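Bench notes, afternoon.
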Amino acid sequence: MNLAEIVETHPGSATALRQGSASTTYGELRERSAALCSALSASGVGEADRVVLLLPTTPAFVAAYLAVLGTGAIAVPLNPTSPEAEIQAEARAVRPVLGLVGDPDPEKLRAVLGGVDVEALTVDELVAVATGEAPIRQMGESDPAVFLFTSGTAGTPKPAILTHGSLMANIDQLGCRAGLAPTAEDTGVLVVPPFHVFGLNAVLGLHLASGGRLVLAERFDPRTLLETLRTEKVTVLAGVPQVFAALAEVKEARADDLASLRLACSGAAPLDLETAERFEARFGVRVWQGYGLTEASPAVTFPDLSGEWRPESIGVPLPGVEVTLVDPDGAEVEPGDPGEMLVRGPNVFAGYFEDEVATAAVIDAGGRLHTGDIAVMDDDGSFRIVDRAKDLVIVSGFNVFPAEVEQVLVQHPAVKDAAVVGMADPEHGEVVQAFVVPAESAWPEGEASPEISASEIADFCAAYLARYKCPAVVRFVRVLPRGSGGKVLRRALA
């Protein structure tokens, strides 16, 4: 098997991708990915090699992704808009043999990867070295297909190993839920970037497997997306909660703008009741909430679409997925009682790249993935998330682990100590809030305020972290609350 084969059997004349006024058929997509696969092989890329994809959401990304998988290599999609330091740190962690770059500035990205001794080519440059044909390499279910950086369950970002088997299993699991999976007659839209597992597999992978049409949104703008939904007659919309909140706020939107939509799905962050109700009142469409995480490729649960609509519910486990709720001692809890969600199934990842300790911390001896999320199971077998056991901040569906931000904050010469927690935000769900203890020299005793500013701290972070990870709020304090063991009491800060 090889995940790249998901596009091999669809009619060549059928439209696979749309962007702007341009269309790409399945036949053209196969030809483009085959040429890239040949070029990668000619360039010496082979099985288990890592190839970084620093590409925007375009047909070129899709073709390159399939080509990397087709060679038996491992695709490593990264955020091309991240700061240079973050891209380089992630590239060093996976030791790629090649980088593929594109907009917003391919020459800048080429230089960024060059800084860690990684050759970088544009997709057009790669095609130019294609020679002959390179058939899709057959892989085992346990063979790695994708590395995605996540801080979801294990602290600072690490490359999670998603295999051909785990990714394909999750596509099949979603496809088994009546009404959820797209068909060849559906039109979807990719508004979640494909360096996020939600966009990469639960949207892109699922739609390509269905043979349907997928409209690519290179960046999220609610007015542009609304126009796309209307003109392209989109039938399936999957996005983070902030997508639905932003669409409902577009003043010029009409009630019938989403008349073609048969299914709206939310994931990657909790969907609040107010957003769900406002969206339905505005467009007459209900948003169904699922649950997943990178380490589960990603989907774990989704509601039964024939059942009662409850916006707060994340539904029931997908076929082949086992969900158990346990107390802090590892004992199963009774229905109605909260417990940590443990997940087992063929969609669970293979671990973190070259990090056995972190892997063992989240996958137990029974093969169960410890999610760190606290849920309650209702009498009908459906689940509701009620808390997080981990200190995760979720900004517009993207995970931010406080330790990663804190490590950057304390590098500032005027910062003595720092702690990060999430803060509720109507636009992003949550934003990063930093509590900073300035060095004595930057905040002498008796002075009302420190000599450094919140904007200086934010600008410093922006040089090392993606924008969504940077503090939106900075509060200066003399001391951080700590427990008897010295650990920062984040709940006290929140």
